[in-house]
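During the reporting period, our protein records have gained a structure token line. A sample record is set out beneath this paragraph:
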Amino acid sequence: MTSKSKRFYYIGLALTIFSILFGNQIATMHNRENDSSPPASAPAAGVQLQPQIAKGANSSLAVWADRRVVLGRYVPDDNAGIGSNTDIYAARYDAQGNLIDSAPIIVAEAIYEQRFPHVAWNGQNWLVVWVTQRKTNQFNTDILGVRVAPDGTVLDSTPIPIYSTPESVGDPSYVSVASDGVNWTIVFGQATFNSSIAGVRVAPDGSLIDTTPKVLFQDTDFTAPAQANIAYANNQFLLVWEITLGSDHAIRARRLSNNLDPIGSPFAVNLFSPSSGTTARVASDGTNFLVTWREDRFAYNEMFAARVSAAGQVLDRDSRLAASAGRENRRRRYSLVANRPL
């Protein structure tokens, strides 16, 4: 196994199984408000969930949704000013996986809910994006973002307004971000009568390049596209998402230019039959892509993967088992598979 293929494999695998392998480690960080908090090996207060991670120049930034400020009490959504529910925190890790920020970085701590964080590196800084309930109307949600410097400094005191949901459009329930090495691209769902996946770009200085979202996929067959995820390689983006086909699901993909113009038509990724995939994720090694998804092909929720070339060709028609989360024998099988190349 070459060093390049090993890097490719683990980058892609990390996106889908990070929460399984490292979710509990996020709970080991210090409480920012209390210098006498337990050591980093003790759990943090509250609940930590929805982790994501992106590699930078010499370190990686992990982000997650955090409920430590609630501390188990109910915060009614209709009581503006009472405080925040779920917030967005972050922490850096060095190249050896050691925690740099014992006290987590506060990315967003506002009233109501901030959820579904995602992060990407553009060669200079990270961009962290998330979905938030609108401060002036908790029944609407928006997408906000901030840049985080390599030293952990949050560069935007006021979050970047990436997407403000119109009253006539359903709220986005997910968000993903990738970078072409200069700008960032953020993708999300628009729940109109025919659901669509849209995207906008953010410049290195934090300004919006696309003030009007570009439609990247428009559904005309009521397939309910969801869970869009995006990665960059070889001068193009690969957008992946799940669709509903009757009682089953499938994984679709589409290549996009740096300007978010479509390259060809959408195509199927999970080619094995029968296959019903959900929760698509994608990563790259800088040349090709690795798409992963979840399905219960063997009666348990397991993770499968297929490589996709820069030309849009699915290289693993039968897909490959990437991880199993079933019974103990399934966990042993996962350990074996995760330590060899696809």
Observations:
- Confidence is low (pLDDT under 50) at residues 8-40, 327-342.
